[in-house]
Amino acid sequence: MDVRTHMSMIFHLDKCIGCHTCSVACKNLWTDRKGAEYMWWNNVETRPGTGYPTQWENQEHFRGGWEKKKGKLDLKLHSRLEGIFKLFYNPSLPDLRDYYEPFTFDYQNLFNSPKKNVQPIAEPISMITGDPIDIETGPNWDDDLGGSNIYAKNDLNLEGLPQEVREQMNELERLVFNYLPRICNHCLNPACVAACPSGAIYKRDEDGVVLVNENDCRAWRMCVAACPYKKVYYNWNTGKSEKCILCFPRMETGQAPACAHSCVGRIRYMGVLLYDADQIPKAAEVSDDELIAAHREMILDPFDPKVIAAAKENGIGDDWIESAQNSPAYKFVKEWEIALPLHPEFRTMVMMYYIPPLSPVVSVTEKSLFRLDLMQEDYDFELFDRLDAARLPIKYLANLFSAGDEGIIRTVLRKLLAVRIYMRRKTVHGKVDSVSRKTLAEAGLTEEQAIDMYKMTTLPTMEERFVFPNYHREMSIEAMLDPLTHKGEVGLGYIQQPKRGE
Amino acid sequence: MDWNQFFFVVFPYISLALFVAVTIYRLVYRPFTQSSLSSQLLERKRLYWGSIPFHHGITWILLFHLLALLFPKAILVMNATPLRLYLLELSGFALGLWALVGVVVLIWRRLTTPYIKAVTSTMDIIVLLLTLVSVITGVLTASLYRFGSVWFTGVFTPYLWSVLLFQPRPELVEPLPWLIQLHLINNFIILAVFPFSRLVHILALPLDYLIRPWQLVIGMRDRKNS
Ligand code: HEM
Ligand code: SF4
Ligand code: SF4
Question: Which run of H or E residues covers position B85?
């Protein structure tokens, strides 16, 4: 057992209102720079939809993630030798137009325009060339499906859904959607690291953050193609790849990452997970239907004395172990088993997790709409069977979060639903009856767990949502440097100005 | 000082000194500036028709030049049978033409694509033009003065070694036709420009990728298991 520590984020999708506050917080902090305008380290996409960059899940096209070749796990992108030959031109690299061309408006024209009979306008101009452009798409033009059904129609996760369900989902006035905020998953088996010919990308041991060493990056841009989540971006101005850094400078000072901190829906939780690095190779190789189980198995119980002993042997401090015990991430992923990795079949072993949305539970029967969670008393028993009538099809969620396994999604949704029923009886009816107890038991939860889940979902304080250990930066090598060494230089890893080379 | 003295003795040393000193300085103290500065994100179609022919052509030709410089005997032995000589000459010529096609497309792309103009520096254009001159003079030399692979090892190898060993023998290259001399001088110019341009990306060729482990983990904690 090789115990290691990881900072993980949980996204409670039921609570996401799709407001993009997270994206904007991140943009303001990190990517409001020349060359990075088009980057959204945090983006929120409407689902069903094609996402950003458009159809990023299409690995036949972008060739991201891992693939079993002759029984061995290999990059889908290239073999090592192929990688060298594709340096000059990388056919799987997304084009700028797969994201969108960054634009602004020629506001100066409002001031400088000569006197005319018509109002001057601020024409849209490209932020790359400065030339006027026709804006064809933007960072969130798929928001709430933008009044169009082409986004939903082209979602690859609809695969395997019966034709009539697809058609039903496509009827504009009945469209159903939810939001999917995405950041880099800081994977345990990151394809970006494996694909980088220069070895410029690495995983931090202490918290698992995956970082690009900008001084080592040589713009071979293999990481951009290899990441199945398209979460490495190429800065066309500096000639370096960049990605989400999980706001490590904030975490090191005990603050939540900007996206999580600013989240209006309070959907995000963060905490330490302990995992067994020895199990990574095996867990990445199992067949599709065993992926989630193997992944859960790899996450270790921070209360288990054996785990604690092994952690200490690995140099993990008491405060990190304690932090892991208080971690909301542990509760969601392992204790309640309701948080799932996004697209586990890409086999990068992601460490950010999603609680699949239960809402909107409204569904269509015959002619009328009904709500799954507001049934009459005696219907409660049947609820679980009615999950299949939910407007967001189980199969669709399964394609997103469990490599197609509907059983796993059903188990999670049952738990969410059972807690709802139980708490409604308790607060609205003033008493817990046998029916709701039975529902809970059927979903595999105890009353205590249900109350914990309820509290953690609806009422958590900032301190309960974000549990950060002490990073002990004072112990790191930088402490050996003269504190004034980098005075007057650009901070956060740049010892020189991050200026484009000649 | 006559021109020959300048071009074949003084200038080579200036350019070699710049090449070695500034390149080392840049790689060690300005690592952020070393990058291939890819522009594929902005424009890919023309890059495909430019970069692939250019690089596949130029890299192999450069390799042949280096081989002839380091192992002249091996090249001579290899050329001992006429068939192999023809094959070597022919493939060298083909690679040269291939590189020529590529560099022409690259220049056209640099000068006419708005997206690429937005990321083009003067040095990018200088480098492409210098490369164009090298490739053209190289290809012309190969077609006008046949069997370069034979006389290179007799003329250039000893000359370049004489420069590298600080006993320059300009008389070896003085009698050569001007076209070949231009090829030589132009390449010394490229060498001088090298550390000031994007050409430093050549030194980043990541061959260690072939053997490094897939995953890299760096941390500040002492771990027993690694
Ligand atoms: C040895 C291995 C080499 C590798 C791996 C390599 C790789 C690259 C890459 C990735 C690019 C960027 C292409 C893009 O825009 O996406 C590039 C551009 C360039 N390379 Fe190389 N290169 C190599 C050798 C050379 C050599 C020997 C030369 C010759 C003099 C050269 C000259 C150039 C030039 C001039 C460009 C700019 C092309 C443009 O106008 O966009 N490279 N190289
Ligand atoms: S999600 Fe992040 S860590 Fe995983 S492969 Fe992509 S960039 Fe790398
Ligand atoms: S800030 Fe929170 S609620 Fe708003 S879109 Fe982002 S994740 Fe969703």
Answer: helix B82-112
The ipTM of this complex is 0.92
The residues facing A9 across adjacent strands are: A270, A352
Q: Which residues of B touch A189 (CB under 8 A)?
A: 215
Name the helix (H) or strand (E) containing A223.
helix A222-226
Residue A202 sits at the chain B interface (C-beta within 8 Å): yes
Instruction: Supply angle C-alpha A79, A81, A83, rounded to 5.
Output: 70
Whole-prediction pTM value? 0.93
A chain contacts of residue B38, beta-carbon cutoff 8 Å: 219-221, 234, 239
pLDDT digits (tens, 9 = 90+) for B117-176: 999 999 999 999 999 999 999 999 988 887 777 778 888 899 999 999 999 999 999 989
- b/e per residue, A192-230, with b = 16+ CB within 10 A? bbbbbbbbbbbbbbbbbbbbbbbbbbbbbbbbbbbbbbb
A227 and A285 share a domain? no
Tokens of A344: 């586990």
Q: Are strands A368-371 and A362-365 parallel, antiparallel or unpaired?
A: antiparallel
The phi and psi torsions of A48 (rounded to 5 degrees) equal: -60, 140
What is the rounded CA–CA span in Å between residue B206 and residue B218?
20
CATH 2.110.10.10 describes domain B3-225: no
CATH number for the domain that contains residue A348: 1.10.3650.10
Is residue A187 within 6 Å of ligand 2 at its C-beta? yes
The phi and psi torsions of A363 (rounded to 5 degrees) equal -140, 175
The CA–CA distances, whole Å, from A210 to A203, A205, A248, A251 equal: 4, 9, 10, 14
